[in-house]
């Protein structure tokens, strides 16, 4: 009788969860086909990662219905606003980064960890930093829930990065910076690259910074906008 009850309970649970899970899978496919591919993201590994990693797992339950929309999604629950940046921008930044299977990667300002989880599908090891300890804890829980094991998540200021795990082959900003992040540049390996959105001037643009012979070369990629990461804001002008 106990076994029968368990079977009935399991069937009921599947019946309740099935339509929702199917809906998320359909939304994930539409996101990739309608937002990512159409923005010239052609790298098969990135497309496969975005089809596999459940974005809704990194979104508060009350906002999961918005998980696959073409927007910067607020995942904060009190305190400073924190976001998962738009899927199409994520795809284009990952493609520009040209992450190799053996790479050591730093994701800065990871929020609840979606970009870091995608990166983990492409790289050997990922370090993710988040300035809000509560969100860093949520990211760790999400990684464990979906079986991502090659990400180390730490609570740290965005501008600090994580020197302990440096040097990095790639650094990715999960947002924009209004200042030159010199502290992050110094954590790049020779030949390494940093990608993110630079809002130091207008219009803001996605940029790639490469380290060659100790020098840093900057190249604009495309116009882009994203929320500015905490600690990477422009200093407020003094007003009398």
Automatic annotation (TrEMBL):
Keywords: Methyltransferase, Transferase. It holds the Pfam family PCMT. Transmembrane segments: none annotated. InterPro entries: PCMT, SAM-dependent_MTases_sf. One of its GO terms (biological process) is methylation. It comes from the Bacteria. GO terms for molecular function: protein-L-isoaspartate (D-aspartate) O-methyltransferase activity. Gene3D superfamilies: Vaccinia Virus protein VP39. GO terms for cellular component: cytoplasm. Belongs to the methyltransferase superfamily. L-isoaspartyl/D-aspartyl protein methyltransferase family. This is Protein-L-isoaspartate O-methyltransferase. It comes from Bradyrhizobium rifense. The lineage of its organism: Bacteria, Pseudomonadati, Pseudomonadota, Alphaproteobacteria, Hyphomicrobiales.
